[in-house]
Fold ATP-binding cassette domain-containing protein.
Amino acid sequence: MPDTIIALNTVSKIYDKKTVLKDVTLSVRRGQSIAFTGHNGSGKSTLLKLIARLVTPSGGTITAQSGLLFHYIPEHFPKSSLTARQYLRHMGSMDGLNKDILKEQEERLSEDFFIQGMLDVPMKHLSKGTLQKVGVIQALLKKPDVLLLDEPLSGQDIESQAVFIHKMKELHSEGITLIMSCHEPNLTARISDFVFEIEGGIVRTADKSPSILQRNYVLLFDGTPQAEIPLEISHFTGMNEKNQKGRLRITASEHESDRLLSLMLEKGWKLRKMYEDHI
């Protein structure tokens, strides 16, 4: 296919005489969003590492279009004495970002993911969820051609999950190729074009489980001095006027929540909390 940027042909991987992946044949086209699901130890992380060229296949071939920029976010982030800020600036400089752009991106993304107060803490003292956020921020400092994410929602709080999904949908709309491993049907249904399940070393097409999109969510937003209420949100249910603290509560279906979040962020609001409405 002319748009194919990554191709796996009968790829296998063996660790300690155990076949983790067997005869995987897969083509990835530019701009696709693909998810791999499966139980722990099924080979999801191994497949991502193979695509990222971090490990070599035991059999078969992997080819990629030349000149692609890959960014890879592991599930388990290495502990380091570097602070999160030092790490982000080091990685940004490696990607060729100038200091002003790097600082601007660092400040904006750390605010989006609610870790402004953690930037100067050594990474060895950060929680798994915070380390995942640092990894996502690092990957977004400079937009890659291919973004590989290993269990990206692992350890994330609900607010950060909502921001992450919103940003991944933005990247997808811009034609960036997303390849991830995950357990959450919510994530695969909302972001992925194709979902594959790995079982017994075999990769098979899986169901996206669209039925989960019928959930409703409550979103709480904090206003800023410049915040405006978008006219487009008048049809959303359960919308309250701003209270004395400048806070707004809106209920929306899971399908509508992506659009709602985008509208509110564009108008200067900040997401304070998001949770499923069980009423």
